[in-house]
Amino acid sequence: MHPAAPETTGGSPFRRVLVPLAFAAALLLVSGGGDSRAFAFRSTATAAAAAPQFSPAAGVYHLPVSVTITDSIPGATIHYSLHGAPLSVYSPVYTKPISIQSTTTVRAMAVAKGYAESAVTSGKYTIDLLPAATPTFTPPGAVYPSPQKVRIADATPQATIHYTTDGTAPTTASQSYAGPIRVSGRETIRALATAKDHTASAVATALYDIVVNAATPAFHPGGGIYSSPQSVRITDATAGAAIFFTTDGKTPTTSSTRYTAPVELPFSEDIQTLKALAGGRGFNSSAVASASYTITPLVATPVFFPPSGTYSDPQSVTLTDSTENTTIHYTTNGRTPTAQSSRYTSPIDVQDTETIEAIGVANGGAVSEVGSAAYTITTGATAPPVISTRPALNGAVVVSLGATTPGATIYYTLDGSTPTTGSTVYLAPFLVSSPLELRAIAAAPGYSGSPATRQEFTTRIAAGTLVWSEEFSNTTGHNAQPDPRVWTWDTGNSGFGNHELENYCAWGSNTPPCSTADPNAYVGTDGDLHIVAREPSTGVYTSARLKTQGLFSFRYGRIEFRAKVPEGQGFWPAGWLLGNNIATVHWPACGEQDNLERVNAAASPDWNEGSIHGTGFTGEPLGTVYHFPAGQTAAEWHTYGMIWSPGKVAYYIDDPTKPYATYTPASLKELTGAVWPFDAGQANFILLNLAVGGDWPGPPNATTIFPSEFVVDYVRIYTN
Question: Annotated catalytic residue: which of 592, 620, 636, 670?
Fold first, then answer.
């Protein structure tokens, strides 16, 4: 049947077709059967119409395309087909661009009055949509000592993120991400992203393991003097934590003997010291608990004070006995004391190297075990330093050095070399997270130098491991003081070398203009540190500067501040480091590393500067400005990071694999008199502050809003 438009005459439909003679003849040739639509249109013209043109050309595309078909013959009609459908003059007529959403073959031909049918133009459009970017997690999956607020982001604009928290594979039917996810235990988060004109992303996976600090163990009975053997139970308040202990005075580790039954302590002439810690799988090791037990017969063995040891001055030794109605008898000539030996009535002066032995004699004649104390008097010599440690995270420790000679200065090395008075001066506890050999000496005015004290640290910790953190946790239900074991304060309004305008106030300061009613720094119930700039009266400004000076420091590693800063004329927030040796060589020789630093954010909010300072470079030469990507604002949460390694200081924002500034000793070669201070042996302490006014930002103005906050989520240190 010819495809002409139907008409109706007298109620009966019929077809009326007017065709050229040549076309009619062609129809007669095939009237024996078949589908007439399979035959091409033939005109009596001898020239063929021009073949249609496609724009854009056929090929592979990563987004849907809109295909326009044109022909150079004016008035030509273009017929087209898709997906391999037959093409003829009865195919659809092209009237507007064709939207190609999936892989399709387009065919087209043109017909025009006075022309034969054109050649067929054919083109395959392969639509290969790109997947959306794989989501990223902040912070990344790892072991953490406290609950975490996990944020999920995706680099594909307007992407929707779907996630699961039970380890199952996410789908587009899974929960949509709308805000931070709180993780308080062992949890696997998996996420994928979808976006218009993209296929679904790959699935991103992050495993979080919140490992809490175990409580310090307790001993039952506690340490003391006993006249009978003791069976000591060790308990711990943290459910599920294992207890490990030693009985030789050494510091226990999770490789020490595991506690399973009471520890039996027999009679002994020596003080028996139990030490224990709690930990094991799922827990960070607790602080070490220690208890000393003196297990003696009915008459206690005399106790010497000070105890045996090496002293730089003559000692006055006191003897005591815990058994009532007991007399003490002693000797200083190496003989074993008896009830006929010298009776102790007053402290014994020890002027030189000497051993004192003593017994207790009860009224009934019972005699104690012999107590002995050897004293070495090194007149004029400084006593050697004492090394102590406390656990940090994941095997790292914080090391402290102590001097027993009044006024002594401690010098130390970390490479096993012999320390001298030209070595690094000990000024604050420091983090140790890699194998090293610590040696230390002490020297005091008027005394000779001490012998060296040595301790070797063998722990190897994988790169990228969290070894110290300040999470600003707060479970009190109200605003709390920043941990005084970590943070101390700068106070006053000296201008701090920059003509700053603020008065820095410490926690608890109520001296005007400071006020305990409106603290300038506190840990909020949200688990963040808030540093608040205030204007208690016109033109009078208060704020806070916290620092770990004298309490904590570190040398080499990757430090991160997660923070958001205020915007306003005159504000100068900063997260930075100074060398401990600022107390001995002063600034700038101590070195300064500025990780987070920006001024007047309201005027130009989307930047941060990372810089270093030292002798010969105290101004702009070694500062680099980072501009946040389009769509980000500097007033939002960002992670400000610094990577400090031998011979290098690098800064990054949010991604440690993409430093925006790297400085080395070679960076100083054009600066006359510049000295690289960051490998001189000292550890550095941390500062967080919000300055108001100063040489760089200038003063506040009428647009500046008070109060305004510099908020810090955490400070973390990782191994390089």
Answer: 592
